[in-house]
Amino acid sequence: MNEVLRAIKERRSIRRFRADMPKKDDLDQIIEAGLYAANGRGKQATIIVAVTEKKVRDRLSAVNCSIGGWKEDFDPFYGAPAILVVLADKNNSNRIYDGSLVMGNMMLAAHSLGLGSIWIHRAKEEFEMPEFQELLRSAGVTGEWEGIGHCAVGYIDGDVPHPAERKEGRVFWVQ
């Protein structure tokens, strides 16, 4: 089987990560894969904020947990040490689609490098908050951005989950 098709079939959402940080070269490759995602009209109107500073990662986790309504001690990033936040230009009508493709490319890239990943929501709500708008400004980001998702990345702690059976009746041919 083609290695891309194999990666698509084998990639899983990981919900338990080791604390050690992935190599920067691996994170760079994952980010690059995201930047090569298909995008509407070739606008490339998405950005990736790579969060590897533990203090900022933990603050994102705490706010995400609060937005999600979980108990304070829950980590919605499941211990992943690197969080790659995808944001899209608020003025781009394709922002959700484009950002989703970036997320998919990054998760496949992480898998291909032997790392685990999971898409975590609530980036939209976080990056509407002044605290995280200031984080963007301090990183040199200008413009108006909407959070699309967090790609939590790290080394898998434990076994890779087995795939769920694929539901029948999801393909219709018009010939």
Describe the secondary-structure layout:
Elements: H1 3-10, H2 24-35, E1 46-51, H3 54-68, E2 82-89, H4 95-112, E3 116-120, H5 123-126, H6 130-138, E4 145-154
Antiparallel strand pairs: 1-2, 2-4, 3-4
Fill in the keyword field for this structure.
NADH Oxidase
Summarize the structure in words.
With 175 residues, the protein is of the alpha+beta class. It has one domain (20-154): NADH Oxidase (3-Layer(aba) Sandwich), CATH 3.40.109.10. 38% of the residues lie in helices and 17% in strands. It is built from six helices and four strands; from the N terminus they run ααβαβαβααβ. It has helices spanning 3-10, 24-35, 54-68, 95-112, 123-126, 130-138; strands at residues 46-51, 82-89, 116-120, 145-154. The chain has a four-stranded antiparallel sheet. It is globular, with a radius of gyration of 17 Å. The mean pLDDT is 97.
